[in-house]
Task: inverse folding
């Protein structure tokens, strides 16, 4: 049997999609914006649901994104007891400017008035939410917070110390557990934990202070606080895209076909 290879659909030089990928299977258009820097797509009912929902969730996926873009960034909301992706964006990077453009294009679709948004701990995302959604509560995800702390341990060259030093390992876990502490006790608890660290972990402590996780000037946590992390539990993205082999980078046609079928 001779099998013919399918033609791979790609964007043109201006970042525009081919006509066959611009509509869902019901002939409904779902492209909100497209150029070389960003493609956003969502059906009208998704935008309606997003507007009605006061609690947003957002996250980026990098390994499942197609080759022409850096990440698939999605906005989610609660639907029938599950967190469901409603708006998709293909971004060329992860800077604050990339996220700003995404939120700008989405905001133009309607008069959205969310009360809070939960995200991971990407620096660009944190800055963008502060700039583009200044009047809403920004919550952090406990799962992503734990990942961020572990990455900091690795990047600071502390992996061996974490593995071999039981006291240091416990203290790192206690830093993560600050998410469960009462708001008025977090700074005191943070200082008590830091007092048990050796001088060689100053960079790890500095990460918490530089990224607004503790705010000594105001003697309280900023709204982007550790205490907020646990309020909605672990943020799990519910999407068929995320069950794909994470090592496979999707083509444009595959990506949009999956989204259009949702």
Result:
């Amino acid at each position: 049997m001779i099998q013919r290879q399918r033609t791979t659909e790609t964007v043109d030089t201006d970042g525009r999609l081919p006509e066959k990928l611009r509509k869902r299977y019901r002939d409904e258009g779902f492209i909100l914006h497209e150029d070389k820097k960003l493609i956003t797509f969502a059906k009208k009912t998704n935008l309606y649901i997003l507007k009605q929902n006061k609690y947003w969730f957002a996250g980026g996926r990098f390994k499942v994104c197609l080759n022409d873009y850096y990440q698939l960034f999605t906005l989610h909301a609660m639907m029938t007891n599950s967190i469901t992706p409603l708006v998709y964006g293909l971004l060329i990077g992860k800077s604050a400017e990339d996220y700003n453009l995404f939120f700008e294009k989405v905001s133009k679709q309607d008069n959205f008035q969310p009360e809070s948004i939960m995200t991971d701990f990407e620096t660009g995302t944190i800055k963008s939410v502060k700039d583009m959604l200044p009047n809403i509560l920004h919550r952090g995800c406990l799962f992503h917070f734990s990942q961020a702390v572990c990455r900091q341990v690795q990047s600071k060259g502390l992996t061996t110390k974490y593995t071999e030093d039981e006291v240091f390992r416990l203290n790192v876990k206690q830093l993560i557990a600050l998410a469960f502490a009462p708001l008025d006790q977090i700074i005191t608890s943070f200082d008590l934990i830091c007092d048990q660290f050796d001088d060689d972990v100053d960079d790890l402590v500095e990460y918490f202070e530089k990224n607004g996780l503790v705010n000594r000037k105001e003697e309280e946590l900023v709204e982007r606080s550790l205490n907020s992390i646990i309020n909605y539990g672990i943020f799990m993205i519910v999407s068929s895209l995320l069950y794909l082999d994470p090592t496979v980078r999707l083509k444009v046609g595959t990506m949009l076909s999956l989204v259009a079928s949702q």
Remarks:
- The domain at 19-140+235-260 is CATH 3.30.420 (Nucleotidyltransferase; domain 5).
